[in-house]
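Quick question about two entries, pasted in order.
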Amino acid sequence: RISWISNIVVVVSPENIETMKSIIEKYGHKRVLVVKGGMTRHRSIFNGLKVFAEKEFSNHLLQKPEVVIIHDAVRPFVEEDILSKVVLAAKEHGAAGAIRPLVSTVIASAADGCLDHSLERARYRASEMPQAFLFDVIYEAYQQCTDYDLDYGTECLHLALKYCKTNAKLVEGTADLWKVTYRRDLYAAESIIKDNLSQRVCVITDVKEAVAQVGFLLHESLKSQIKVEAISISPSKNDSLLQNMFSGQCYNFVHVNVSSKDA
C-alpha cells in the first residue's frame, strides 16, 4: 500500500515458497519477489539482499536501491510513518532502527542459578523493527560477516557498526511494533485488533427477505451498542467483485445465513 517502496522481497523457508507464490498470485500482489531463506535470521536477510547485487542468485535481478528496509513479518501492524522516519534517518546516518522502552527489568543469573545483577531499565531500550540502511552499508557488512555472525547473530544494526563503522540512528517506535507470537504478545495483539480493526463491520446477507431483515436488525443493534460502521450488502457469486469492493479497506465480516431447518 506504500507507493514509494519500489520492491518487496519476501524471504521464506524453502518448503513454503510455493505456498507464498500462490498467495501472491491469488491476491494480485505487485512488486513482490519470493526468495528462499537460510537456516538463520542473518542468512535469510543476506539471501534477500543478494537479489539486488548477485545475478546468479536470482533469475530477476532487481535494481539496487539507495535504502533498504528490513522488517519482520511477525510485526504486521507497522505504519507508514515509522517506515518513513527510519528511511530518512538511514539516508542521513547510514543506518537507523526503531526502539521501544523496556517493559521488564533485565537480569543476569550467576553460575549457581542465583541473581548476579540487574540492568538499570531507564538506560536501555528494546531494539525493534523496521530497520533501514543505505544498501551499500548493510550489503558490505553482510559480505564481511563471519560464519559465527551469520549463525548466531540477530542484530543488523550491530553488523553495520562492527564492519562498516556506521553508528545507527535510533528512532522512537510506536506501541504496535511488537511481534505476534504464541507468548503473552498474543494478548496485546488481540487488544490492538479490537481497538483498530473492529471499528468497521460489514454485515453480509443473502437476498432472501428474512435473512436481509436479520442483517438489518444486526446492523441497527451494532450501531446502538458500539461505535462501528456497519454495511449491509447482498453477496455476489463473483468473488472478484467483492474483493474489488473492499480493496484497501479493513473490515470485520459478519455473514448472516439460515439453514433449511430454520427456513
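Here is the second entry:
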Amino acid sequence: MRVNVARVWEDSDYEKVRNLCEDNDGWVEVYKKKDITICTQNIENSSYQMIKAIALFPDVSAVVAYDVLHDSAYRAKWDKYMIKQENIGIINPNNDVCYYSLNSVAPIRPRDFVMQRSWLETDKDRLICSHSVCHEDYPPAKGCIRATVLLSGYLIKEKEQGCEVIYISHSDPKGKLPTWLVNRVTKVVAPKVIKKLHKACLGYPEWKEKHHPTWKPWSVPEQQMDLARVDLIKCQPKDYDQEIIDESNISAMSVSTKDDEDEDSLKN
C-alpha cells in the first residue's frame, strides 16, 4: 500500500470522509460505554480494519474541539506519545504538510509519518482529514518505522449541548506486527484516545488564554498563516527501504483484560 499524492483536497474528498463518518452500512460495533462507541469495518484488499469512534462531549463546544485538534502547540502538552512534530509547509490555506513521530508501548518501535492535513468549516460541521504523503527532505527517522495513514478524519458537529466527535482511521503500521494484534489493539486503544481528547478539550480554554489566545491560523489563514509553500515536486510518492524488525513478540504484552478500559466490553 502506497501513500497518496499531495494535492489540494476537493469537495468530493471531504464528502467521502463525511459519508464514512455518518453512514452506518458496513460497520460492526465492537465497543460501547457511556458516550463512546467504537466500530470497525473490513476494507477490500487490506489486512487492516478501518476504525470509527463516535463520542459525545456534552461539556465541550465544537469550536473548542476543532481548535484542540488543530493546535500543535497544545498537542505537545496532552499527547504523551508525541516525540516530535514539525510543520513542513502549506499547499494552500486549507491544506498543509507536517512531520511527526510517535512513541508506542514496548516492544513496538516508534513510528513516524509525513502527513497532509486538509480541513473545512461549514455551517453545519467541521472536518479535519489526513493521509500519508512523502517529502524528500523527511525520510524515515533513525529508530522509527515509517507507517502509512491511508485515511483519517474527524467530523465535529455542534449539538444542543456540547458536540459530537466522529473519528475514522485506516492505517498500515508497517514493520512486522501480527495483523490480528494490530486490529485487536486498535479497538482497545481507541476509547483511551477519545477520553484523552475529551480531557484535553476541557483544559484548552484556560491554557489558550495564556498562550497566544488569538492565534488560530487554521480559522483565519489569510491573516495568520505564515508557513512557506510546499514544493510538490518534493512530495512524489516513494517506497522506502526499511529494516524489517520482528515485533511479533508483542503478543506477550498485556493488550489485555487488565487494561483500564474494561476490555471485556469489547465484542469479539
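Reply: Residues 198 and 235 are 34 Å apart (CA to CA). The chain has one domain: 11-237. Hope that helps.
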